[in-house]
Specification:
homodimer, 472 residues, alpha/beta, Aspartate Aminotransferase, domain 2, 2 domains, seven-stranded mixed sheet, 42% helix
Chain lengths: 472, 472
Amino acid sequence: MTESNFPQPPKHLSTEEFRQHGHALIDWIADYWDRVEDFRVVSDATPGSIREQLPTAAPEVGEPFEDLIRDLDDIVMPGITHWQHPSWFAFFPANASPPSVLAELVSAGLGVQGMLWSTSPAATEIESHVLDWLVDLLDLPAYWKTTEQGGGVLQMSASDSTHTALVVARHQATNRGVQPGSMVAYASTQTHSSIQKGATVAGYGHVRLIDVDGQQAMNIEALQSAVEEDKANGLSPVFVAASLGTTGTTGVDPIEAMGAICKEHDLWLHVDAAYAGNAMICPEFRHYQAGLELVDSYTFNPHKWLMVNFDCSVFYVADRGPLIDCLSILPPYLKNEASASGAVIDYRDWHVPLGRRFRALKLWWVIRSYGAEGLREMIRYHVALTQQLADRLDRDPRFEIVAPHPFALVCFRCTESDEATSRLIEAVNKVGSVAWTGSELDGRPMIRVSIGQRSTEQSHVDALWDLIDEHA
Amino acid sequence: MTESNFPQPPKHLSTEEFRQHGHALIDWIADYWDRVEDFRVVSDATPGSIREQLPTAAPEVGEPFEDLIRDLDDIVMPGITHWQHPSWFAFFPANASPPSVLAELVSAGLGVQGMLWSTSPAATEIESHVLDWLVDLLDLPAYWKTTEQGGGVLQMSASDSTHTALVVARHQATNRGVQPGSMVAYASTQTHSSIQKGATVAGYGHVRLIDVDGQQAMNIEALQSAVEEDKANGLSPVFVAASLGTTGTTGVDPIEAMGAICKEHDLWLHVDAAYAGNAMICPEFRHYQAGLELVDSYTFNPHKWLMVNFDCSVFYVADRGPLIDCLSILPPYLKNEASASGAVIDYRDWHVPLGRRFRALKLWWVIRSYGAEGLREMIRYHVALTQQLADRLDRDPRFEIVAPHPFALVCFRCTESDEATSRLIEAVNKVGSVAWTGSELDGRPMIRVSIGQRSTEQSHVDALWDLIDEHA
């Protein structure tokens, strides 16, 4: 190949252009946060309305960066549902914060891939260290730390964490000669769908959804009976999921009593604390997680309610041995001195994916920026706003609260009729200035109000109450 | 609760402080890219050396943001292995680019969670649209588009994509009454470890690693025999993985011939093109993927070699029906009009996790910013640099190239002895100004040189050659 026809690299955005557009986009985000209340919370885009504005084929020639920013405003924004809106009361929050977003930027700029300790020691060690901090902050058993026999790892979502727990439990059972097709996983009827999905993905033959009591907590006698009945029928109970805050109503399963059954029958006990685990940073909520010394794994999502932007799910195991035993495979191109020494953690052995980005940076920055006290303040403020709203609902004969509301979610319905509830769900969502979630409990419609955005204040909840009052 | 003791929200970084620190960090990243060559490529941190600089407990009170940036320089940077260094020749690249990093920033700032179409229509529609663009850009079968019967979805890593394919294939086989314990997945001995790991995680009873020929491609007769032998022994062949560019040497399996065997025996054929799939944007490489009309699923990682920062793995299925059938679960709190209409895609049904961030933004911005031509230029430049280095190695009697090198990876060893190869691996890595990967082929040491960083130029490869020449 002569010099003249040797390929040339493409033209990149220069460092100067990166600075220029980067500064503009920092301001764009700050402006967005300042004006987010001007938007409808839920996009009113119709199916296909975004795509139809995009050219059929990718551009052959690069476009000016200004065009990308223009389309961000003109095409993207009308199709955005504003999870960061202070009147976001839907689902659970996915709250974020300035230090988290800045850490995500730095992580992308560094562009490290932390599959092994050696491929960026700081990424692994900061992750281990901060997750050990959280063991203390949430008052989890000390032996769950990476410096002890357990350990934490960041995953993308609680679904991934739960699936991983299911796989390790299945692997152990398979080693005892049990066929996946005969394995049973147990959860309550109110458990998040990720348990059922994870069990399907992991190949469990059976998922048993156990009834709840009036507190939306798993009926412990029903669990005991189901396990015994399955055993009597030749099936193999393997896995039990306890919810610390169900998605439907934030019901709390009796972890300690479930743990006793799991010990008796040698079952893996997993705690799905995706949402409410964040509240455990406040001592006054920790009685809800009594019994953790009986637990094998635990997941919670700082990306839900701890101001770490999505994705950032924490997965703890009480003993990392079975996890690594199940998931470690060492091809020759990944061999290295540090791994061989056994002195380091290679997080690729803690989950399904091999590659991983430096997600711990944002968790570290959020904790340091707010301090534990700042995080507790946020949780307590959201819970107080929720209890205040619950008081209003409780005092008003038009409404009926349908489940306990220990955290920052309250579920209610209209006393008049189910139709009134359904009408209220639609009417308030139609206004556009708030978003909440219509759901069902015991086959009847109910309304979920989840309070957890970083910028949500008293005034936003008051405005929601006014809407409820007006449309009920 | 009286007004005076009602909890107050924590003090957040103000918008002005966000702007100030955001601008500073944009400059910090630009400066980092400008000075990245001043760093040792591979961190020389020793195990524990990062952690020991961190306080034992999380701070109770928030710290000034300046302290976080200070520790970024003082504590984090010495523990960073610089994947964005132009002399990064290790593993495969994880290259990034200015538009990608800026899109990651915007995605974090918007903080949307795109589990359902309705939770941010733009996130879903741009993802579908851009992945349809890539079907054309890579000349994949047109029916893989979301507008046809197939479709693409972004996952975190090729390991996730491959695992998903394994699960869907297992699910179909289970529906036919096959037990996972009797299922067999096939891949070549040179296939990425994610196949073996994915099959373990998905519960396959058996993984059969098939021999390769002198071209590092799967021996097709050996595959045929293995499938027939397994069937004769009462096992159930289910899944075959073809590598389009093995991790060891970028070997290319014969997709078309494998497809014929898969059709004959009704097996799922998955193509792992994690690295080399990116090269398919150039027509001259597409003969390597002949036979795609026989394929059920395909994965490639724009986060490896298309300047989209980690994570961004693409997963295509030829028919989305079985995927959604396997992975869709609909709890009441996720019900919504758009989903019920069937007119939209809900990507939560396309993978294990429920939540998902707006990753398509960076893929969209990279393609638009460079244009297809710019992406082809980058691929061709890296391949040309690699072929030039291969020529030098080939002409020098001290070295022996051990495998075909169709893309931008060349593998070689020292002709003198295996000890000489091992010494060379160590000697060059010790210098610190470059990084490459020592691996093994046929039980003997070899050296992998992977050329794929955005800022790698002729001069960096020349400097690598000088080091090889000096230390051999």
